[in-house]
Amino acid sequence: PVLYLVVALAQIQATTFAVASAADAASRVLEVDDSPSAMDKAQVAVGLALSDQGIDADPAGSLLVTCAHGCARGQTAVVKVAVGVDLPGFASLGIGRDVVVVDTERSITLPGKEEP
Questions:
Q1: CA distance 94 to 115
Q2: How far from 85 is each of 4, 9, 33, 76, CA to CA, in Å?
């Protein structure tokens, strides 16, 4: 039981670090890039940050950007990255990544001046 706990906590810690890094990377991209491909670039940044920690997750499904008043120039947006943790032994029981989900959010201001 103690060994399982150590391994599970290590997996949760790695996922937590990866999710925080992914949110930071996506936020940096979206804060400076207002091109139509900005979201694609943010997803690539999320994928790289997750894979650096050995986390196998779909970047497109892990990244969510929401805006309270529409995602226009100069508006505030919330960047959220959420990833389920693969706990050892749970996959063999048919239990997926939805048991433990690690997420983090970053609030950013989209680039450009606010449009009138």
A1: 50
A2: 14, 10, 30, 29
SS3 label, residue 94: coil
Distance, CA of 62 to CA of 53 (rounded, Å)? 15
Considering the entire predicted model, what is its pTM? 0.86
Q: At what angle do helices 38-52 and 2-32 cross, to 10 degrees?
A: 150
Q: Among 45, 14, 9, which residue's Cα sits nearest to residue 27? A: 45
Rounded distance, CA 84 to CA 100, Å?
6
**H helices present in the chain, as ranges:** 2-32, 38-52, 59-62
Give CA–CA dist 61/46, Å, rounded: 10
Give the pLDDT confidence of 51-65 residue by residue, as tens digits. Answer: 998 898 999 999 999
What does the alpha-carbon distance between residue 20 and residue 14 come to, in Å, rounded to a whole number?
10
Q: How far apart are CA 104 and CA 23, in angstroms?
A: 7
In tens, the pLDDT along 4-28 reads 889 888 889 999 999 999 999 999 9
